Every structure is written in C-alpha cells, then in structure tokens.
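Bug #2210: token dump truncated for AarF/ABC1/UbiB kinase family protein?
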Amino acid sequence: MWSNLTQSSARQREIFEVVLRNGWDYMRRLLTGGKTDEPKLPPPAVLRNIFVDLGPVYVKVGQLLSTRPDLLPQEYIDELTALQAEVPPVPWEDVEVTIRQQLRQPIEDVFATLNTEPVAAGSIAQTHRATLKNGQEVAVKVQRPGLEKIIEQDISLLTGLAELVSIAEFGDSYDLVGLAEEFGTALRGELNFTEEGANGDKLRRNLAQSRWFEPKKIAIPEIYWNLTTEKLLVMEWVDGDPILLAKYDGMPGIDRVAQRKAIANLLTRVFFQQICLDGFFHADPHPGNLFYLRDGRVALIDCGMVGRMDPRTQQLLIEMLLAMVNLDAQRCSQLAIDMAGSTSKTVNISNLESDYDRLLRRYYNMSLSELSFSQLFYEVLEVSRNNRLRMPANMGLCAKAIANLEGIARNLDPEYNFADQIKPLMTDLFGRQLIGEAPLQGLLRTALDIKNLSLQSPRQFEVLLDRVTSESLIWNVAMKDVEALRRTLDSAANRLSFSILVGSLIMGAAVVSSQAAVSNVYYLSDILFAAASLIGLWLIISILRSGRLR
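Reproduced locally. Full output below:
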C-alpha cells in the first residue's frame, strides 16, 4: 500500500508542504499518521489553490473532477470549472526539438511557415499556427517535453493516497482506488494525441448525417494523419471567433438576434444527437472549444475529452431526462437505481424517493422558462450521491456537457429553454424507437414471422399431443437457489439430530445413575453426562456463530 507513496518521496514532500501551506487539516492528519474519521474536503477555493500549487498535472486532475458532478457538490464543480493552468509557454527551442523528433524530417520540408509564438498554452500542450507547403493553414499542437515522467509519478501518488484513504469508512462507499485509476487512464489518454485525432474523426462521421439539423452547419477540423503522432497533432486551422465573442454577421438576410437563437438551437440538436443517438459525445463543450466561423458554420475543437454510452445507459438517460422534465420523483428514483446497477443493493429506496420528491417539489410551481435544467440535473446526481448510489462516470460527463451547453445557449438567447428544445426531439426519438427507422421493412419482417409461426404451429401441436398420449413427455423444472435451501434444511436437520442425541445421552445417564447403586457403574453415568455436555456446548456455539439465534 505504501509502495506507491515511497517511490516518489520528493514529490510526496512537496505535496505535504502544499497541503500544510493551504491548511487542509484532514490531509495534514492523514499524512502525519494522525487519527482520521470521515474524509472532509477543503473549501472549494482552497482545493482550487492546492491544485494550482501542485502544478500542471494536478490542474488537469482538477479539470477532470469538474466534469464529475456525480462525485462533488456544485460549488466545487463551479470552482474547478474555472481552473485553468497558469503555465508559461515552453521556449521555442524545446518545442522545435520535439517537433523535429516527431516529424523525423526537417521542419522546412513540411511547413512553409511556422509561427514560433504559441496561440494557446495549456498544462498538457501548446498550439502554434502554421502553413503547409501546399498553402493549407494548420494548427500544430505540441506536447510539453518531459510530461510523461511527471504524470506517471503523480498518478502513482494519487493511487497511493487513494489506497490510504480507502481504509476509512469512506472507502466502503466510494471506490477511491478505482477512481484514481480512472483518472490515471484519462490523463494518459490526454497524452496520446492520436486518440484525440481519432475522436475527432469519429465525431465528424457521426455528425455527417442527421434528421434534426443541417450537417453542413457543423465543422470538425480535419486531422493530417501523415504528420500526427502521439505527441504531435496537426489539424485544420479553423478561421473564426469563440462562440460567445463572434459578431454573427456572416449570414445575409438574417439579423443578429435570429442568428444567435439559431446557433443555440443548432447546438442543442447537435449535442442531443451525440448523447442520445450516437452514444459518443464531445464532453468539454466550453465556450473556448466552440467557434463561429466566417462562413456561418459552428466548429467543435479539442476532442481530447469524450464520453461514451452503451445502448442501455442511453435508454435510461433518455427516460431520466423525461422524468426530470415531468418532475416525476418515483420514476427518477427507479431509474437512478437501474443506472447504479449492482452498487444499489444497500440503498434505502424509501429515503431515495423521499429525497427526490423533496427536490422536485421545489420546481412544481416554476415555469419552464425559469427552470435551469443543468441545475436540476446536478441536484438529481447529488441526491444519488447522498444516498450512496455510484452513478456511471459518463453521467457526470453528460451533466457537465449539458451545463456548458445550457450556459452557452442562454448567453446566445436569453429566452432559451432547454426543456422546450428537447421535448420535440424526445418525441421523435421515442417514435423512431417504437416503429424503427424503416417501418415498412419492420412490418414485412413481422408479417413473415407470423406466417412462419402459423405454418409451424400445427406440426408442433401434433408433436405435443403425441408425446402426451404416449406418456413420453418430460418436464424439466429449474428452481433458483435450491442448493442454498437444501444446505439450510440439512443444517437444521443436523442440529435437530444433535439435540435429540444430547437429550438421549442425558436421559441415559440419568437411568444409569439411578441403577448405579445396584450395578456399580458410576463411571458410565459420568461419561454420558460429559458427552452430552460437550455436544450441547458445541451446538450452542455453532448456533451463536451462525448469527441466526432469532
């Protein structure tokens, strides 16, 4: 358990100093071997400062935590959402070395121009603007040198701390080691730019067709795979402005207000399709990752963080969204339990329903225009967390994506209402699930199945009657948990037999004792009493140890 912590004593000492400097009492007691009870998080601002002081990797951990409202209260999510790595750019000399190593050819043979000043610098990478030899403008994203070693060291420390905290009662309710491993996987994924490029390609393919919006209005930067490696990402340059800073003057004949409303509607439909139809969505749609282009399109960039949903989770999420819109507390409770799966065995269902009912009652008299859907989604996840339901990680990513989307849409259109926007989409979605994508083909398939059934039924009925009349029909009945019932009955029968044996030994000893004066066999009476006492004592101990005295 301590091996992960002792491997990096210098980094551990640095973390210890940061914790002491920021005054997080719980971690101070933990690291000094003091007595600890239920873990207590520091105030949101203090937690943010700790991540900033610990450096770029922990800033990224904080950013990942900001996508998990299923783990943290909203005040922490709000504080960590604004967390940005205040990291100075890497000197061009070091960046150039990395680019040359990854390209394995002279930069001059690839780029006509390459700006040495970065247009953006983050905790993982920095981006430069360049022009290829064919005149195509591109963005060159370069990973910060030496980052792999630092991340592996910090992931090891995170896992060690998670193992340490999991000893407490808190660890019985939350899989802290699993969570640390999940964040470790996410951090390693951020280091592999080929994954980010593949995510962008998949997103572009999924959004190339839609019945809810015009696919030509969405742009995903093309990846230049012949120049892209794990540490270098070369992609199409998007010529536009951040979504909230654009002037919206690129669509003739449509005023600025109407354009902003159209963009808000477009983004809602794009992300609803990603989440509820494709099961693969851009999980970090903050304003800096959405651009309004000169030609009127909207571009989604930075596909390093994505969410995935299997069909079952998709269906549960859709029903949960509908239950939230309808303020149905009982349905929300049942769907939350279904989402949690095996981790919901110990949940108190009546308490869960009561908490959801109390939550949703606050919204009963509120008009849809006043309702913040992302706020409601956060509170639904918070109720699940307070009742110790472990929701899937993609629920947190989905909630954060919806919160970002709703915030951007309300900025674009003050009259925007998420519930009004998604209701017609959900109606269409349920209709498609009911009749399928090709209703005529489905109807013909059903008719064919009925025809086959009608042709096979007489023969199967004839075989059944023949077996009944010939007494060759055999019924196979399978009962669940019969073996457990058999063991319980065997145990009860054994205890009853031993009880009868003890009683018989005592009665025999009494008879022998009454005849001892005549036959002089006192020793036999003592043996019988001793045997009865030992067996009786063993029987009592076994019953007490089983815990089934009552």
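Output looks complete on our side. The chain has 23 helices and eleven strands. Marking as cannot-reproduce; reopen if the truncation happens again.
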